[in-house]
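Our preliminary data section would be incomplete without showing what the modeling component actually yields. Below, a chain of 282 amino acids is followed by its predicted structure, encoded as tokens that our downstream tools consume directly.
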Amino acid sequence: MINADTKICCLIGDPVEHSLSPLIHNAGYQALGINYAYVSFRVSDIKRAIEGIRGLGIRGASVTIPHKIKALKYLDKIDPPAEKIGAINTIVNDDGVLTGYNTDGDGALQALEEVATLKGKKVVLIGGGGAALAIACGLKAKGVKVVVLNRTEEKAGKLAEKVNAEGSGGLNKLSEISSADILINATSVGMWPKTGQSIIPKDLLHNRLTVFDIVYNPRETRLLAEARERGCAIVYGYKMLLYQAAGQFELFTGLKAPLPAMESALTQALEGGRDAAHFDRR
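Predicted structure:
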């Protein structure tokens, strides 16, 4: 029951209307029986929203597009890994002191390490945005060789330089996949409603490869379906969504996230419990 003692957490971004975050977090609060509630706020003015978090005593916030970079300058402290990435997805309010974190990279690596060993492996990472950067930073910290490819070659080069990757280039270098151990799609290609798309030609996939697609809607993208057909190990994008949310949950509450309850709520939604056609990337 929500009352004056309820600690409020939230999602801020634009759009947020069909976000999965309230479902995942509130399932966790219910499982532990703690007096927390999580809501979504559609936010265009990030400065005023952060002032509101401080002024209203909101315990924590998940930050999604388009505010992950802009939010940095309005916080009191930035966790060093998030500072290196240059973007946050989490704000924690400790008695008016706001600290920014980024759980995206850790969430992706946790999902990946359930299926593959990372150290010493070669990863081809497709993408040039904030998610790709967070994942690349995490991979390099694990001793992984990273090659960054992107439709815009310049963006791939900038990301690769920032994380000291072993290589970069445009999609004309997709042949790098032939010698890779792991392939990660960190773009939105294949996401609903354009579910028939894949950035990777099927004939480049080989059975020594682990394929991770961070797109979670649909649950099994064209890339993952084709990877399965080619004998690859696969990693579902919803796992990254789950684990980055669990990291936020623990920062907000100081308690271990009840993963079974949170995952059950998420998978039920993805399997049709809610209108998955309208989910955004958070």
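DSSP finds nine helices and twelve strands in the chain. The CA atoms of residues 97 and 182 lie 40 Å apart. Preliminary results of this kind motivate Aim 1 of the renewal.
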